[in-house]
Design a protein that fits this description.
alpha+beta; Photosynthetic Reaction Center, Chain H, domain 2; 2 domains; seven-stranded mixed sheet
């Protein structure tokens, strides 16, 4: 008697392997989808209530991640771990999907194009645990090798007002590029200008997103040698909001 044929019978091993692969692949999709739900879930409706449709898969179990360089731990997903600010906005209509409109100064309140996310109030760090973005005055190994050095040039706002002078450049050391220009304001204090919205010319640096009167309200930084991720969010949001809110003429249609 052939024992092998008696035990196995007429099982097609190729077909069994195919079914096992399908089961594995389906499980992999479900696993990856649930892992993808560690941030941004559970979802909410516009009024802050839990959304009725959370998706076809349940939330994964909470997992705690240890952050490098002694920065503590993060546990996700967490209910109500999102932005808990009371935003200065109101619905223009009770209908679902209606737009919101600001109720105060949107650039200061951080809403609409000026919105920012509540990132951690610590500097972004490199692989060695050092702050990535630092002023060039503290990074003696860096120098301007090409283009114009903006230090010492006046800063001109959209309305032509000269608000101060560029005093330093803030560089991203790992990426070896300039992230911000630091302006010493004529009225006192200093502010950072994102490099992307600055235009360096022969005799001045222009910033077209905001007017001269707005520079005093640009979010400041707590340290003279580093900028936190939260501070970066607020600074970039403020200048971005100026693209729409800095002038009433920008709120209307172009045609």
């Amino acid at each position: 008697m052939d024992i092998t044929s008696t035990i196995v019978g007429h099982v097609d091993f190729a077909q069994v392997l195919l079914y096992l692969f399908w089961i594995f692949f389906a499980g992999l999709i479900i696993y990856l989808q649930r892992e993808n739900m560690r941030e941004g879930y559970p979802m909410e409706t516009e009024d802050g209530k839990p959304a009725p449709n959370q998706g076809p898969f349940p939330l994964p179990k909470k997992k705690t991640f240890k952050l490098p360089h002694g920065r503590g731990t993060v546990t996700v997903p967490q209910a109500n771990d999102g932005d808990q600010r009371e935003l200065a906005l109101r619905l223009t209509s009770p209908s679902a999907g209606s737009p919101f409109e600001p109720t105060g100064d949107p650039m200061i309140d951080g809403v609409g194009p000026a919105s920012w996310a509540e990132r951690r109030d610590v500097p972004e760090i490199d692989a060695a645990g050092h702050p990535k973005i630092v002023p060039m005055v503290k990074a003696e190994q860096f120098h301007v090798s090409a283009g114009r050095d903006p230090r010492g040039l006046p800063v001109e706002a959209q309305d032509g007002e000269v608000v101060g002078t560029i005093s330093d450049m803030w560089i991203d050391e790992p990426e070896q590029l300039v992230r911000y220009l630091e302006v010493e304001l004529s009225e006192g204090g200093s502010r950072l200008i994102p490099m992307q919205i600055a235009r360096i010319k022969k005799d001045r640096v222009t910033v077209l997103s905001i007017m001269g009167k707005h520079f005093a309200n640009v979010p400041s930084i707590a340290s003279a040698t580093q900028v936190t991720m939260l501070e970066e969010e607020k600074i970039c949001g403020y200048y971005a909001g100026g693209k729409l809110y800095a002038s009433e003429s920008r709120l209307g249609p172009l045609v």
